[in-house]
Amino acid sequence: xxxxxxxxxxxxxxQALREALEAHHRYLAGRSGGRRLNLxxxxxxxxxxxxxxxxxxxxxxxxxxxxTLARANLSRAILxxxxxxxxxxxxxxxxxxxxxxVCMRGAxxxxxxxxxxxxxxxxxxxxxxxxxxxxxxxxxxxGELNYAVLAGAxxxxxQMSGAVAMTSDFTDANLSGAVLxxxxxxxxxxxxxxxxxxxxxxxxxxxxxxxxAVLSGVNLSQARxxxxxxxxxxxxxxxxxxxxDKSLSEVLSEHEAFCDTNGRQGQVIxxxxxxxxxxxxxxxxxxxxxxAPRSIFFGMDLEGVQLQGADLSGSDFRGANxxxxxxxxxxxxxxxxxxxxxxxxKMGPLTLGDNRFVRTDFSRAxxxxxxxxxxxxxxxxxxxxxxxxxxxxxxxxAGAEMEI
Length: 404
Hints:
With 404 residues, the chain is largely without helices or strands. The chain has helices at residues 14-29, 248-260; strands spanning 10-11, 42-43, 122-128, 132-141, 242-243, 246-247, 350-353, 356-358, 381-382, 401-402. The strands form five sheets. It has a two-stranded parallel ribbon. The chain has a two-stranded antiparallel ribbon with strand order 3-4. The radius of gyration is 24 Å and the shape is globular.
């Protein structure tokens, strides 16, 4: 689809738009004089609505091409058949919005919240050029996302059956539980995307890049995967993981005993490429000094875990809960921490005595969309780390090494 069909749009002057927005804000606040924003087929091309609260607004068929909607709240809004080509929609909230038949070709939706949105085909009413809406013809139009940027976006549970998203960028996006049956995803980039339990039945992924994508529980029946790059994809975990004929649970208990007794019992565990997911959770476990590079902790509950001085380089912590974890002096070089929850985590230097210390190292790690609010990371290393969309409010970064 190269362009939207020609149809009449109503031009709005700045004063009329301002009054309509003020009335909508009163409506949301439950104040007198409030009126829900209704801009059916309004011409808002190249308009700035950045950061505005547009919850529940009705923008059916509106022309918003080139508009700035970054950080706007459009949750539950109706954008049925709207034209959002080339719009700036970074970090916009479109949760449970009606996006059926919308055109977002070339739009920037990096870090956007689209959980539960409806991007299915829409039946658009187009007016006759001479008779207006007295004579209607209907066109079935799929939601279009060709060339759109959705890196780090949350599309969990989104309804996208039949959507057209060729050459779109879904890097590190959350598509868990999304319905993409029959979607056209040719040459799309889905590197690192979470497709857990998504339905891709009959989807066309010809030439797509799905490196490191999470495919646990995904339905790929009848999907076209010609020339699709599936390097390093993460599939469902094994029911139990063994290390030298011992269960992973036994091995970790031995390491924990070593930590608890200052080395009098148990032993230090040095592992690599271990899938920890069968453990379900390691909440508040004492695993200081653990050596487990290139291991998998995807989506696990690690709240309050003690991993001081651990070697976790190249490991997968995407979507993991690391709240209040003690990670002082741990090595996370080249680790994947997209969407990880690190709120309140301790990531400062680990003192070794004699004025020696070792810093927590996130060099070349991916922290896209990670939550570091209230974390303690003085003198931590973030050299060449991906920090797009990371939340850093209240994070202590005194003396940290970061790219400027």
